[in-house]
Write a structure and sequence with these properties.
The complex is a heterodimer. Chain A is mainly alpha-helical. Chain A has one helix and no strands. Chain B is 62% helix and 4% strand. Chain B is built from 19 helices and four strands. In chain B, helix 6 packs across helix 7, helix 14 packs across helix 15 and helix 14 (398-418) packs across helix 19. The relative contact order of chain B is 0.13. The chains are: A mainly alpha, B mainly alpha. Chain A binds chain B through residues 1-2, 4-6, 8-10, 12-13, 16-17, 19-21, 23-24, 26-27, 30, and chain B through 64, 67-68, 71, 74-75, 78-79, 82, 86, 103-104, 106-107, 110-111, 430-432, 435-436, 503, 506-507, 510, 514-515, 518-519, 522, 525-526.
């Protein structure tokens, strides 16, 4: 089960890195 | 409301105000790299940490790099807290031989302490070893608060810097906030709490003989009782100063070994709002206009004080059904009166209400009374304060950057109302800043609403609601409000230590923390890149300040 919960945490932080890129993209477009 | 209550509330607010100014000025110096007087004893440690970690203190970061550092540090923190809990049965400082924490609870707790929420689905004294309490949880009490302050300081630099793409160095901000602000204050408070009787020990639990025989949970006669102890004072100090709130013991600050005397209660209450209130002054200092800091402080106080009086009145008035039955609920020399259900007689209504309002204003999950037992109106206020987004003083750092998001929205609306280009502290507020502010404000709200809806719509969510009906719904809504806004307190009555709630509330805490921080840092980067506009020739500044104070809480 550990891999599931650790994977969930890792997935969130990976998505957050994607969000940083997306906000950067939005700003460049602004 | 009694004169005694007014005196106690007035004393608390007066001492808080008196301490906030000098501390706020000091914190501003810490982050503007002036030399604080503590740099002599702690400077060696600071330089050693930089050397060990390969940090160049003069290196500046763009907002993307700053945000990536926040995420990387928090992810490693999450992994470490998770691993310590799962491995605690093999690790030292486990005199009660606690087994490993279950995976779902370890996930929830790791997320909870990394995000400065301190939602506790477990009972501290029955789940965590001393090492887990100290190395996993208390370390996060420090660093998660320092991360919040770092993000705030980065945002303030966005306002103060001109035409640059950098907002500071996250690692330096993290180290300085921990070393020069949180550590010294925690040391002082921990010693003061020990002097009041808060336990600080590595010994195993103590068996004591009862003064009177009692019955245990299954009705057998009991003459002895196990009293759990532990390294509490050091953790309590940080949990209050860092607006964390996770207690060593299950009943948190209602436990006599966490909060034994009126003075310990006062000191802990002071610690809850001290840094958030001081950071308003820090903001004014760092932007070079103290009135801006006081304007934010006043906006927060304008919401805090009436709500505090409202809860105190609601609880002092008691339950009208009992009044109709002829039960005397008036405060007198022989009784506190009002609604004392779920409250410690040591603290009474005033200090319970003050604690409830201060903690739910300040994103601190600790309790010294049970919010679930408050009157409907008394319980409504803590939940509403949480749902405001924890911006009335709020969490360390996170409260003020949350309030500054509202300030950005406020000046935008105020600018539209008076027909001028929206501008705050000389920086024009454009479409990008508004988009980011909207995203940061809406993400936690969405998480609260969606999480509550999923919980009440699914069998897994409904099966551990022990209080069916409308109050059970309030308990679920409170749980998601608390998680989504990183408060950490609970209405209780909800069995939240299940894989379903551990997972969903964990997600709410992560979104409520990091998906607010990221747009805040994006705003900081965007503002830092802008030049500072000249003061307006038209007398608009007083209007702007007034608008800010009026609009910010709403």
């Amino acid at each position: 089960m550990d891999i599931v919960w650790l994977g969930a945490g890792a997935a969130f932080f990976a998505a957050s890195c994607g969000l940083v890129w997306f906000f950067g993209f939005l700003r460049a477009e602004d | 409301m009694t004169a005694n209550a007014l005196l106690q509330l007035g004393l608390y607010l007066g001492v808080l105000l008196a301490c906030a100014k000098p501390l706020g000025i000091y914190i501003a110096r810490v982050y503007t790299v002036s030399t604080p007087f503590l740099e002599k004893p702690f400077g060696v440690v600071e330089r050693m940490l930089y050397r060990l970690c390969g940090i160049d203190r003069n290196e500046e970061m763009t907002w993307q790099r700053y945000a990536s550092s926040v995420l990387a540090f928090s992810f490693v923190s999450f992994l470490a807290v998770y691993a310590i809990q799962r491995l605690q049965s093999w690790l030292p400082l486990n005199p009660e031989q606690m087994p490993a924490v279950s995976p779902d609870s370890a996930f929830n707790t790791a997320v909870s302490f990394t995000t400065n929420t301190n939602w506790q689905g477990y009972g501290g004294e029955t789940t965590m070893s001393y090492l887990s309490q100290m190395l996993a949880l208390n370390v996060q009490n420090f660093v998660s608060a320092a991360v919040g302050m770092a993000v705030l300081v980065a945002l303030i630099r966005g306002f103060t810097r001109r035409t640059t793409d950098t907002i500071g160095n996250f690692w330096v901000d993290l180290v300085r906030g921990t070393l020069y602000v949180l550590l010294p204050l925690s040391l002082m408070l921990a010693v003061a709490l020990v002097s009041q009787g808060v336990v600080q020990s590595f010994g195993s639990s103590q068996e004591v003989t009862l003064l009177e025989s009692a019955a245990d949970a299954v009705g057998h006669p009991a003459n002895t009782q196990e009293i759990a102890i532990g390294p509490a004072a050091s953790q309590i100090a940080t949990k209050q100063l860092g607006t964390n709130g996770g207690g060593c013991f299950n009943v948190n600050s209602a436990h006599p070994l966490e909060n034994p005397t009126p003075l310990s209660n006062f000191l802990e209450l002071l610690a809850i709002l001290l840094i958030p209130a001081a950071l308003c002054i820090t903001f004014g200092e760092m932007v070079g206009d103290r009135r801006q800091g006081w304007a934010i402080h006043a906006a927060m106080g304008a919401v805090f004080v009436p709500l505090l009086l409202f809860v105190t009145l609601a609880e002092q008035q008691g339950n009208p059904v009992l009044t109709n039955l002829g039960i005397d609920q008036v405060a007198s020399e022989s009784q506190p009166g009002g609604n004392m259900e779920g409250k410690e007689s040591r603290f009474g209504i005033t200090n319970s209400a003050l604690w409830a309002v201060a903690t739910t204003a300040a994103s601190n999950g600790s309790v010294n009374s049970m919010h679930d037992s408050y009157t409907p109106l008394g319980g409504l206020v803590p939940m509403w304060l949480i749902q405001l987004g924890e911006v009335i003083f709020g969490g360390v750092g996170s409260g003020l950057y949350g309030m500054l998001l509202f300030a950005i929205v406020a000046v935008f609306i105020a600018g539209q109302m008076v027909g001028r280009t929206p501008e705050y502290l000389g920086k024009k507020i454009g479409a990008f800043e508004m988009k980011m502010a909207a995203v940061a404000i809406l993400f936690p709200c969405a998480m609260v609403l969606v999480g509550t809806a999923v919980a009440v719509a699914s069998p897994s969510g409904r099966e551990t609601i022990f209080n069916p009906g409308s109050h059970g719904f309030s308990e679920v809504l409170y749980a998601f409000s608390s998680a989504g806004n990183n408060n950490g307190s609970a209405f209780a009555g909800l069995g939240a230590n299940t894989p379903f709630y551990n997972g969903l509330l964990g997600l709410a805490m992560l979104v409520g923390r990091f998906w607010v921080m990221l747009p805040v840092l994006a705003i900081a980067g965007s503002l830092a890149a802008k030049s500072r506009s000249l003061p307006d020739p038209v007398p608009c500044r007083p209007i702007r300040r007034c608008s800010l104070s009026c609009w910010s809480p709403w």
